[in-house]
What does this fold into?
Amino acid sequence: MQWFQTSLLAVGLYCVLAKLIAGWRRGGGRENTRILSCFSLVAVAYASDWLVLFPHVGYKALWLFLVMASKLVFLIAIVWATQPFLQRKHNFDRLFPPLYRGLISSAFIALIPLVFSIHSGTQFDNRVQPISHEYGFVIHCGLFYAGAVFMCVAPCVALRLWRALPERSLPWRAWLKRPEHALLLLLVITWVCSALRVLQCSTMGPTWGLELNLIMTLEFSVLVLVLAILPSSSSPSGTMTQASREKYQASGLDQALSDRLAQKLRAMAADQDAVHQDIRSLAQLSRSLNAKPHYVSQVLNDVLGMSFHEWSNQQRLSRAAELLVQEPQRSVLNIVEHVGFNSKSTFNSHFKRRYQCTPSEYRQRHI
It folds into this structure.
């Protein structure tokens, strides 16, 4: 059964490296660099895991350390990569507070005994200079502690990222197009599969059985899905599908222009002050972007997965949610009129559909 796991790791590593090469060659700005850094850590983890499983490779303790270290750093990288896609109030300190950083640092300290046990042999045990039972116990305690830190911090980070997502109630097709959603999905499945692997090893021992094969297959299946969701540049703008390109091949909108327009639309969404501009129509939005209306409409529909009306409502709702928390003395009706809704009942309906609560309940929860 071990050949199956090494093959999965090799295929997963190949897919990640192909994505990295395509992404670095194409570019895409700081957001692209941050996301590709996450996949670089995934590549390190897969390569190290493969070297641990491969029987004729030495320095087993080194590869095990890299597996554990890359998982821990991956938590920081995920937050760092998703931050540009979130609202400005969700800074790094809020998403990854000092407590989490302290736990990660202590986990690295706990792995130091493993580092000092590194040797060139093809087994974990050093038969030339055997370590004492006490030192071996310290190594195992350090591994257990580092694993426990990852298992505890990862779901907390995922929950904070989920709460910080600007668009949680999108249709599933539009939801999957967002890079921050794909990265969150990758974090969750990494945590779930790591938990299942620990459970499998603790209940059935370190055997290469069918259960571990199924767990690793699930993990790599989601990895391939995430790689397929994210565009080659891993930019926040998304990308047009082949069907969209064929549909609009005569419109004059190429991929580069589509990326630029989508990035501008994302920037407007992140900068809530832009919502105050009197943008009530597609023509006004097009003028603010200095682009043709049918280009903007195409990018909204095929890249961001929504119409202009949906996009406009989402920006107004985001601004309203921000004002509800920042200005608690301000009435809901005043905020409704300020962000551009003509009817309070319409606003309440859209707000509840998106945030699963009324504006008053949202204010009470976040103040």
Remarks:
- Residues 133-164 form the longest helix (32 residues).
- Residues 232-245 have pLDDT under 50 and may be disordered.
